[in-house]
Specification:
The chain is of the alpha+beta class.
């Protein structure tokens, strides 16, 4: 079965400074409330790389691109997100957005 879904996926690979993984994960859990408060936010996940200890993958689903780049990035919630998390990254992550072409489900 193939389903077309109209959502935008934000993707960022996060390189966290060595020795700060546990505190980063704790602060990320706190910061999650801020991103989740934005209209147009759908859900997010943070995944830790198996091969590289300090590497994470952030995936966020938004209803539309503007919900992220305007709604979130221009909000007070983003300032809190930034305060809690941005000092962990080296280098600063590139954030990209993807639209669904095709999804397969069993």
């Amino acid at each position: 079965m193939y389903i077309k879904i109209d959502m935008v996926l934000e993707m960022a690979i996060l390189q966290v400074k060595e020795g700060s993984n546990l505190q980063f994960e704790s602060d990320f859990a706190v910061a999650s409330q801020f991103i989740a408060s934005i209209p147009g936010y759908v859900n997010h996940s943070l995944r830790k790389c198996i091969e590289e200890e300090n590497k994470y993958l952030l995936l966020v689903n938004w209803e539309k691109l503007e919900d992220h780049i305007v709604g979130f990035r221009e909000s007070d919630a983003y300032l809190e997100w930034k305060r809690l998390l941005h000092h962990y990254y080296n280098p600063f992550p590139v954030v990209e957005h993807y639209e669904m072409v095709l999804e397969s489900k069993k």
